[in-house]
Amino acid sequence: MRYLILSDIHGNWDALSAVQRHLRQKECDAVLVLGDLVGYGADPDRVVSAVRRLPEPVYTVRGNHDRVVTDLSLAAGFNEAAQRAARWTAEHLEESNLRYLGRLPRGPIQVAPDIAICHGSPVDEDDYLLSAGGAAEAFAAHQAPVTFFGHTHIPSAFTLAANGGGVDGERMDEGSMELDPARRYLLNPGSVGQPRDRDPRASCMTYDEKTREACWYRVEYPVRSAQKRIVAAGLPSILAERLALGL
Ligand SMILES: [Fe+2]
Q1: What is the 63 CA–ligand 1 centroid distance (Å)?
Q2: 61 vs 119: CA distance, rounded Å
């Protein structure tokens, strides 16, 4: 099975459609969506509808933004721009898409004997896995050999060595990594719709179960178009500006 892994699309239709065009040739058999389909971007309906139309099998977990737009009483923990975006998103989503987001499961979920997915961390869907210490906690709490996670918007890989060894963490550029069956992995594809590693290109990955090859991709998309939509929607201008900076 070859998986396409998408995370943190954040209502960015320009980025998602570019990724779909780019990855079409790569022939994936299943799609894993790691949450935050909406929030920040100006096309939540098109994004949710596109995810719902993906050919099965598709496995999706909710992100914190998906959860908040379906229950705005939870928005208090967000900064001002994110709160405004959450309210705008809730008002502009079709009822069926809002219901779809409300039904998304909380991670982690097992998608294959060796593979799990979650939004933030297998310990807590809202945790940011940014350090080897956090990754060590996650490895101790959940036993899946390979877990894909999102939320940080930073393409990255944490590896647990065999026989009680330590945890290594690294940020990932475009390229591939062959997974060692003796190790365990926490892998982040980066964000499709709002990358935060100072590279504005959409980020995603594939994983081939047979060859154990994980590949990270960066895909150019029309950032100006996504920015214009955000401004035209009356969303906070910072949400448009940050897309060009990859922040
Ligand atoms: Fe996110």
Answers
A1: 7
A2: 7
